[in-house]
User: Fold Gene product 88 domain-containing protein from Haloechinothrix salitolerans.
Amino acid sequence: MSASPPARQHNTSDRRPTRLLTQNSELKPLGVWNWSLPAWAGRLADGRTYNTCPSAGICRFVCYARSGTYRFPAVKARHEANLAFVLDDPAGWEAAMNRELSTPRFTDRWIRIHDAGDFFSDDYTRAWLRIIRSHPRIMFYAYTKEVARFRRLIEPDPPENFLWVYSYGGTQDTSLDPTADRVADVFPDEDSIAVAGWSSQEASDLLAVLGPRLVGIPANRIPHFLKRLNGRRFSEWQTEVDAERADRRARSRRARLRAVGDTTGRSAEPSPLRRAA
Ligand code: SF4
Assistant:
């Protein structure tokens, strides 16, 4: 048997976090623990690139988890170590999460899945489903923009101890139905939430899954974020961006058809007769 070159190893086992669940200043008073990944896209220390929020839209421009304390080197390294653990040793990560959740401190508590990041793949989502089902005495919740994945993998048979809210500002916003889905939108401020008739979750993050179905989140008071938000809701901003993109695509398609028509001397538009056939 000939020897093949060794596969590239990502030796991150020595940097694995010993504890997977933490509490931040917002969730600690509620007794909620959370699991976090690094937000959106980046590069791990070993050079691998990642995107933990594949359906993020405009939210990435004003992402709370890409500013402030989340950018502290120790915090960022911790979140990246979490991600590396999931990617390098998914079975080991799942076992470690199950072990940690089996300790009495989490019994009858809430776990927020993802302070930052999202359900970035089917395998990762299925792993969470197995974890959630293994711990019926723990309640889990999440915000997500992975609408299609949830419709396919979670909605048909959701675990009883898992609640979620779809959040606007992603590339799948148009798949959301605010008359039926539990949805969260970021608003410029508390007043605009009340004017729209939505319910603010400002008093407790758990209201996002336990309160009324239309969940309003007041925007972070970060001046350059507020400037970009420009008085809009995330859903409105995303709709504008989607419309601009559709318009750009239509214009470039028309330009391509015109160019083909110029080259051949014929109109590149299909014959209306053929179209009707
Ligand atoms: S999905 Fe959440 S964590 Fe990811 S970029 Fe958007 S706001 Fe940030």
